[in-house]
Design brief:
The complex is a heterotrimer of chains A (about 280), B (about 210) and C (about 220). With about 280 residues, chain A is α/β, with parallel strands linked by helices. Chain A is about 30% helix and about 30% strand. Chain B has nine helices and no strands. In chain B, about 45% of the residues are buried. Chain C is an all-alpha fold and about 220 residues long. Chain C has helices spanning about 1-10, 25-55, 60-70, 75-85, 90-115, 115-125, 130-140, 145-165, 175-180, 185-210. In chain C, α3 (about 60-70) crosses α5, α5 (about 90-115) runs antiparallel to α8 and α8 packs antiparallel against α10 (about 185-210). The longest helix of chain C has about 35 residues, at about 25-55. The chains are: A alpha/beta (about 280), B mainly alpha (about 210), C mainly alpha (about 220). Chains in contact: A-B, B-C. The interface between B and C is large, with 42 and 41 residues. Chain B: It is a multi-pass membrane protein. Chain B: This is Osmoprotectant transport system permease protein.
């Protein structure tokens, strides 16, 4: 469990990124912080592994204030996946993935084996292991980034817009893969994005942020859609543009779901009721 | 050729002396510039001051400097150490700028990701920053090395023996062959040393052999 | 530090400021060689460099040649040229010209190459001839790097002309080389200080000029 206790951050130049933020992130589930740029979501994420230290307030992991832990040791216990993968350009893919293990003192051979396992888990073939990052496509690099985040089997995985820089088809693929992995591994994932679709797709808990890290609404995707807290949330999730407001229409005896402009969004399938 | 063969022992001696006077300044200058240049790459104010100082130092002509240095530090006028010091100063002036540029071009995201992976400061410096600055540093070492090998010859004018001594001797004896041999040997020495740096770079930075951006 | 006070004594002795061996005359000589060398070298290297930068042709060759010339020892070239062509002004100046070409050439082609290709495209697009593109767009925009090349060339020639006193050239190097011959350290040191001051003044003048240039 990760807990923010009224944390705030003002940067050295005086600009406040986060004012007063509190949240509990339950274990073994995915929480997504979503908001436009400047809402402080990345700052909040980076507080968890002490890449950013809050100006006030506390961050606790399993009820221990992380300010009492050394940043380097803390970071080694937490997986981190960032935009553009952040792979080291001078290390082969397998060595990149093995980095967290090597830093933790795992012997070279064992680290390599576990890195190969992690690569397989994210769908990268063994033939790519000895290549350098720039020889891979953006999507493949991102997969390697996820593999590096998972390789040391951390309880917590921080993901900072990990799929923001790849094209939509690859992104959808990566999102599906992450869902599958999470189903299997049950990590505590804190995920940051500006894309509400991605947030609803991946999040068990979704936290919509305004500027300065103010929580506009937190809840499951269904809760947010069913009862948006205010106009800001309604607009942010797209309820004001008609895209999300659906009704049922009859078409040749089939029941079709259409949006408020009459554009079809799908069909109503009664066999799905059981799930 | 006959002359070169007849004097091969002496030529080898001069070449070794020349090699010594070239490598020491490049290596010492580089090692001194590493922390200074790193510091300059991180902070704007020292950067401006250090780069300006380096520029001025590099402006000073070598022969007058060879005369001034013994006066400043009290060494004997004929001491080879004067040549080593002057050339080290040049190398240092050149390297401070190159080292600052080399560290400045290392991607901030990569450093960030290394920190997030749990690298300590020293691990990050040695394992990420230094290797990624490596190609630019290597290019700098090559430039400094070539010009230092050539500059050492000026030391012959103040009586420090090296391959440049072949120029002064040849000139006094009106003997062109000796000068030509000297020029050829200096160029060969510069090329061989350059090849050594390139080879060293390939060994230490295998990833740079790949084609493509980096 | 007494050697320095002796050097200052030498510098303040009035006989050292008069006649053909006096400081003003030597400074003028030195500047004269420098100007002559840089003008000749510029006439060769700058048009060539602009052409290489504009057309992109012979670029590899230019880089190779400038690199190779950097390895060439100045003193070797100077002594060889004099033994080969005799004493006089022409052989040493020719050698100085050869050594001044690389920085000028590099400044010229690097300058033109540094101009944003989109700007050059736009210039062609509005109907400029290649000559107009070069003279009205590329040269003005590359002025700063051109001046940088000129600056390194001038400073290099000032330094090399000092060394050239060894082969009989006049100028400030005389104080150093004649001093070495008779072990007159105060004169060597005094002369050295004059060269250093001259180099710094020239460098400062160029720094000012570069700051004033529009690019």
């Amino acid at each position: 469990m990760i807990e923010y206790r009224s944390v705030g951050k003002t940067y050295d130049d005086g600009s406040p990124a986060v004012d007063d933020f509190s949240l509990v992130i339950p274990s073994h589930s995915t929480t997504v912080l979503v908001g436009s740029s400047g809402c402080g979501k990345t700052t909040l994420l980076r507080m968890v592994n002490r890449m950013v230290d809050p100006t006030h307030g506390q961050v606790l992991i399993d009820d221990v204030d992380i300010a009492t832990r050394g940043p380097v040791e803390l970071r080694r216990s937490i997986g981190y996946v960032m935009q553009q993968a952040g792979l080291l350009p001078h290390r082969r893919i397998v060595d990149n993935v093995a980095t967290p293990l090597r830093l933790a003192g795992v012997p070279r051979r064992e680290a390599r084996e576990r890195a190969m396992d992690a690569l397989a888990k994210v769908g990268l073939g063994a033939d790519l292991a000895d290549k350098y990052p720039r020889q891979l496509s953006g999507g493949q690099q991102q997969r390697a980034g996820v593999a590096r985040g998972l390789v040391a089997d951390p309880n917590i995985l921080l993901m900072d817009e990990p799929f923001g820089a790849v094209d939509p088809i690859v992104r959808a693929d990566l999102q599906r893969q992450l869902q599958t992995l999470q189903h299997e591994l049950g990590k505590t994932i804190l995920f940051v994005t500006h894309d509400i679709e991605e947030a609803f797709l991946l999040g068990d808990q979704v936290v919509i942020l305004r500027k300065g890290g103010v929580v506009a609404q937190a809840g499951s995707p269904a809760e947010i859609l069913a009862a948006p807290a205010d106009d800001f949330v309604r607009s942010f999730v797209g309820l004001d543009k008609g895209r999300r407001r659906l009704r049922i229409a009859e078409l040749d005896g089939q029941r079709v779901v259409v949006d408020e402009h009459g554009r079809p969004a799908g069909v109503l399938d009664p066999t799905l009721d059981r799930t | 050729m006959t002359w070169a063969r007849a004097n091969s022992d002496r030529l080898v001696d001069l070449m070794l002396q020349h090699l010594w006077l070239s490598v020491v300044p490049v290596v010492v200058g580089f090692l001194l510039a590493l922390p200074i240049g790193w510091w300059a790459s991180r902070f704007a104010r020292p950067r401006a001051v250090l780069l300006a100082a380096g520029g001025i130092l590099y402006t000073l002509p070598s022969l007058p400097l060879l005369v001034i240095i013994p006066g400043l530090i009290g060494t004997s006028f004929l001491d080879p150490i004067n040549v080593a010091i002057v050339l080290t100063l040049y190398a240092l002036a050149l390297f401070v700028r190159i080292v600052a540029d080399a560290f400045a071009q290392v991607s901030a995201e990569v450093l960030d990701s290394a920190t997030a992976s749990g690298y300590s400061w020293w691990q990050r410096f040695g394992g990420v920053e230094l290797p990624l600055a490596g190609p630019v540093l290597l290019a700098g070492v090559r430039v400094a090395s070539v010009s230092t090998v050539s500059l050492v010859t000026v030391g012959a004018l103040v009586g420090v023996s090296n391959l440049g001594s072949l120029f002064t001797e040849g000139f006094q004896r009106d003997f062109r062959t000796e000068i030509t041999v000297g020029i050829v040997l200096v160029v060969i020495l510069a090329l061989v040393l350059d090849a050594v740096w390139v080879l060293l770079g390939r060994l230490l930075m295998p990833w740079t052999r790949l084609r493509g951006a980096g | 530090m007494s050697v320095f006070s002796e050097a200052f004594d030498w510098l303040s002795t009035s006989t050292n400021w008069h006649g053909p061996d006096g400081v003003p005359h030597r400074v003028l000589e030195h500047l004269g060689y420098t100007a002559l060398t840089v003008v000749i070298a510029s006439a060769i290297a700058i048009p060539l460099g602009l052409w290489i930068g504009h057309t992109g042709r012979l670029r590899g060759l230019a880089i190779a040649v400038t690199g190779a010339l950097r390895a060439l020892p100045t003193l070797g070239l100077l002594t060889l040229v004099v033994l080969w062509r005799g004493i006089g002004l022409t052989p040493p100046i020719a050698a100085l010209v050869v050594l001044a070409i690389p920085p000028l050439l590099a400044g010229a082609y690097a300058g033109v190459e540094s101009v944003d290709r989109r700007t050059v495209d736009a210039a062609r697009g509005i109907g400029m001839t290649e000559w107009q593109v070069l003279t009205r767009v590329e040269v003005p925009l590359s002025l700063s790097l051109l001046l940088g090349g000129l600056r390194s060339a001038v400073l290099q020639v000032v330094a090399t002309a000092t060394v050239a006193a060894y082969i009989g050239l006049g100028g400030l190097g005389r104080y150093l080389l004649d001093g070495i011959a008779v072990r007159d350290y105060p004169q060597m040191l005094g002369g050295s200080l004059v060269v250093v001051v001259l180099a710094l003044l020239l460098d400062g003048a160029f720094a000012l000029l570069q700051r004033l240039s529009p690019t």
